[in-house]
Design goal:
Distance between the termini: 122 Å
Radius of gyration: 48 Å
Helix content: 25-40%
Largest sheet: 8 strands, mixed
Number of strands: 12
Number of helices: 15
Order of helices and strands: HHHHHEHHEHEEEEEHEHHEHHEEEHH
Strand order of the largest sheet: 3-2-1-8-9-12-10-11
Strand content: 5-15%
């Protein structure tokens, strides 16, 4: 417009002419604009002013937070100090992950070794033997271990040309051990049931009970009266007809010949060979003369296949070490020697007159034949060979010994399952695995 504009009054645009089509221009300076805005803000209601003021404060606070975050991201990482590193290493249950900012701690001294010591383990076993109340005496014999040995027994099929594993029961008496062997390693009860005349099966078995060969057992008993009882039991139970049990009436020692045997009645468990014929017999006993063989000569004479001798059991009332001496060729053959051996030890070893001690027998079994031997207890097997031997084991009391080939890992598994002295057994097996002698 060629006409110079007139300034708007302080009151604002509402005091200007109301012609919206051609509003007169206003000449506003910066001061006039600020004054105009403040005037308009002042004329707002109280609620509107509060909302506008809150939005402004929020905007300023947001700008402040953004600036602080930018400073943290651009700042260099602080250097770790000993006070900040130490709690992470000591208090954390998990070892800290190596980091370029955390030095790996180096121990100043090596902690003491936790490796078990032989004297401590040996004393633990010996203390169990000394403080026991009959756990390692009397009837704690091979029968306790038979269930554990079944795990290592291989059953050949019925039609296999391979012979069944051989068991040798020396000093069988009326056949208690033979009966337990047939129960644990055979199917004698099932065979008797299926061959009984009163059994009438109307259906064919899908999974037959008797699919394997029965174990081959040499049951040896010298006393005539006791051997007669043994024969009757074997016939009634079907040992010789259904199973593979050979009954042999002979005594065994370390030389062939004839010897005097002291006995009382059939089934007497204290009947024994007499080394000193001048010694008076016990009450109610009488003497008989019987033939004596060695085990090596007996096996050769009967042409017994000893390729798979699983167990050799000896219970001959004081002459056990002489029977072992008479089995020298069998025990020396690394391919045919028995996998497991059990024999009895008691005060009759003194009366037998051979002068052999338990320690001498254990040492010979270890050094000459490669067997490790253990005292049989009702709850534990105690190692008797060096370096685990203690003099208290030479007690001349009625007990039984179990032996296994040193290189056979089966005896380690038997101990791990059988023993209740868990800490001592674990330490013992650990030391044995390292080849400690």
């Amino acid at each position: 417009s060629p006409i110079s504009p007139t300034p708007c009054p302080i009151g604002g645009f509402e005091k200007c002419p109301r012609d919206r089509r051609a509003p007169p221009p206003c000449s506003l300076t910066p001061m006039n604009s600020l004054s105009n805005l403040l005037t308009r803000f002042g004329r707002r209601s109280r609620t509107s002013r509060s909302i506008i003021f809150g939005l402004a404060i929020s905007f300023l606070l947001l700008l402040f937070l953004i600036s602080v975050q930018d400073k943290k991201q651009t700042a260099p990482p602080p250097k770790p100090t000993e006070a900040t590193v130490k709690p992470i290493i000591e208090d954390s249950p998990i070892s800290p992950t190596p980091s370029p900012f955390l030095p790996i701690p180096i121990p100043l001294s090596t902690p003491p070794s936790s490796k078990p010591q032989i004297p401590v383990v040996r004393q633990s076993f010996a203390q169990s033997f000394i403080n026991s109340r009959g756990d390692y005496c009397c009837c704690a014999d091979l029968d306790y271990l038979l269930p554990y040995l079944t795990r290592f027994y291989e059953h050949p099929p019925k039609n296999s040309v391979e012979p069944a594993p051989l068991f040798i029961d020396i000093g069988a008496n009326i056949g208690g051990t033979t009966s337990h062997i047939l129960s644990h390693f055979g199917h004698m009860e099932a065979l008797r049931f299926h061959t009984s005349k009163t059994t009438h099966l109307t259906t064919r078995e899908v999974c037959p009970e008797t699919t394997h060969q029965e174990p081959h057992i040499l049951t040896i008993e010298p006393i005539p009266e006791t051997f007669g009882i043994l024969q009757t039991r074997a016939t009634e139970q079907g040992w010789t007809t259904l199973g593979h049990v050979d009954l042999i009436q002979v005594a065994l020692s370390d030389a062939r010949g004839n010897m005097t045997m002291e006995t009382r009645y059939g089934g007497d468990e204290l009947s024994r060979l007499v080394a000193d014929t001048q010694r008076p017999l016990g009450d109610g006993a009488h003497a008989i003369t019987i033939p004596v063989w060695t085990l090596d000569a007996l096996l050769t004479q009967r042409q017994v296949d000893t390729a798979r001798v699983f167990l050799l059991k000896i219970d001959v009332e004081g002459f056990d070490p002489l029977v072992l001496r008479g089995a020298h060729h069998l025990l020396s053959d690394t391919k045919r020697r028995p996998r497991f051996i059990a024999f009895e030890y008691n005060g009759l070893w003194n009366e037998a007159g051979h002068g052999i001690t338990l320690k001498q027998t254990i040492t010979r079994m270890d050094q000459e034949y490669g067997y490790v031997c253990f005292q049989i207890g009702k709850h534990n097997l105690l190692p008797l060979y060096e370096p685990w031997w203690v003099s208290e084991y030479e007690a001349w009391k009625w007990s039984n010994v179990f032996c296994a080939q040193r290189g056979d890992r089966a005896w380690r598994k038997v101990l791990a399952f059988y023993n209740r002295l868990e800490s001592a057994t674990e330490a013992f097996l650990s030391l044995e695995s390292e080849g400690v002698r």
